[in-house]
Design brief:
With 202 residues, this protein is of the alpha+beta class. 16% of the residues lie in helices and 31% in strands. Strands 3, 4, 5, 6, 7, 8, 9, 10 and 11 form a 9-stranded mixed β-sheet that branches. The chain has a two-stranded antiparallel ribbon with strand order 1-2. Strand 1 and strand 2 form a beta hairpin. It is globular. It starts with 22 loop residues before the first strand and ends in an 11-residue tail after the last strand. The model has no long low-confidence stretch (mean pLDDT 89). The structure holds zinc ion. The site of zinc ion has 8 residues, from loops.
Length: 202
């Protein structure tokens, strides 16, 4: 942020070591906080295929990803996930049926990404939205031939997902990812009780 959102005064450039800290406007004293963004992503699957889309915009234009995007103010995480999935692929998913899947600390891009999963009983009609130029359900073998956005971290997530899908046993995982290349990767799994996450819903 270069200018104060309150009074328009130019903000002093932070020292490199303080780039992640809050700053004060010298003119009106407003605090300018720097906080990570929250992004959401959806693994929607039908049988042994998951919903993928090819990005038509930067970043990662032309590369394949799962439907994902930024949480907007006033939305729940599940509503944002359903909205992004619809906007990017045309697939309607019920936010009430989304199960929490992964929480990913991504300090290198100042984001926390929350992934949800949802099993679909029938394949929805797809229509790529303005931010995508293609959307399709794909098998693990098909995905292995794609150029993925945010490789290798997304590739790792997808590989792990298919492994859990084959076992029919999902966990909620807390992941730390300190670089796009997967450096300082750590993952802690929280096993779900017998049945599925819906059994614990109130
Ligand atoms: Zn100001």
């Amino acid at each position: 942020m270069k200018f104060c959102s309150e009074c328009g005064a130019r903000l002093p450039a932070p020292a490199a070591t303080d780039a992640a800290k809050s700053s004060f406007c010298p003119a009106c004293s407003k605090s300018h906080y720097r906080n990570p963004c929250i992004t959401v992503g959806c693994i929607a699957y039908h049988g042994d295929r998951i919903l993928m889309c090819r990005r038509a915009e930067e970043p990662a234009r032309g590369l394949w990803s799962i439907p994902s995007g930024y949480l907007e103010c006033g939305e729940t995480l599940e509503q944002a996930t359903a909205r992004e999935t619809f906007e990017e692929t045309g697939a309607v998913v019920d936010p009430e049926r989304l199960d929490l899947y992964n929480v990913i600390n991504m300090t290198h891009v100042e984001q926390v990404c929350i992934l949800f999963r949802i099993g679909l009983s029938r394949e929805p009609r797809l229509r790529a939205g303005p931010e995508c130029d293609e959307a399709a359900f794909m098998s693990e073998n098909q995905i292995a031939t794609l150029n993925l956005a945010w490789q290798p971290s997304l590739g790792m997530e997808i590989r792990d997902f298919f492994q859990q899908l084959r076992m029919g046993d999902f966990a909620i995982r807390l992941v730390r990812l300190a670089s796009a290349a997967g450096a300082e990767y750590s993952c802690r799994s929280y096993t779900l009780m017998a049945g599925n996450a819906a059994s614990g819903r109130r």
